[in-house]
Amino acid sequence: MTPQRDYDHDLDDVAHRMEAKRPVPRAAFRGQLRRHLLAGFAARQSAPTRLKLLIGVYAGSGSALLAVAAAGVAGIGPFGA
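Above: the chain sequence. Below: its structure as tokens.
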């Protein structure tokens, strides 16, 4: 169990002052950041083409490795005994 701590009501005033005086980025910066992030998101929408290529490459290399392993187990190929 965690020990119960006394609640300090003076900290409420400090919290309110900190929230009121916290720095906020300029509106121009926020707008530019939003456009930059949305442009990056739109560019990532073309990723499925590359993803399909990667899936094909990984599936092909995995199949080739399984064929080499099967040939080794059968006693033929580079790892046959």
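Residues 47-81 form one domain.
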